[in-house]
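Hello Y.,

Per our agreement to keep a running log of every chain we model this quarter, I'm adding this entry. I've kept the format consistent with earlier entries: sequence first, then predicted structure.
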Amino acid sequence: MTLIQPNKNSGFIKIMFSLGGLFILVAVFYIYTYSEIVSVKHDIAKYESDLEIIRVQNAGLKNQLYAMTDSSKLEALAAEQGMVSEKNPQWQFASQY
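Predicted structure for the entry above:
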């Protein structure tokens, strides 16, 4: 009489396949995470360079603003418009009416 016995190592094989599958999932997750981190680092470097360009442009605009509002230029503009500088100006407030 022949007895058929199931393979006694099938539990070990199932554990090995489960661990292998888990290892593959962890490896794929690690690769994906690493790729995203590198992408974010590149984006940060790009935004920093853009920010530096904007800072330089802002400094140029501030220089233009300060040049336009220079007191000597404002006095010349006032004289050109026929305005007179008062030594003792009389202020009127809307709350007095």
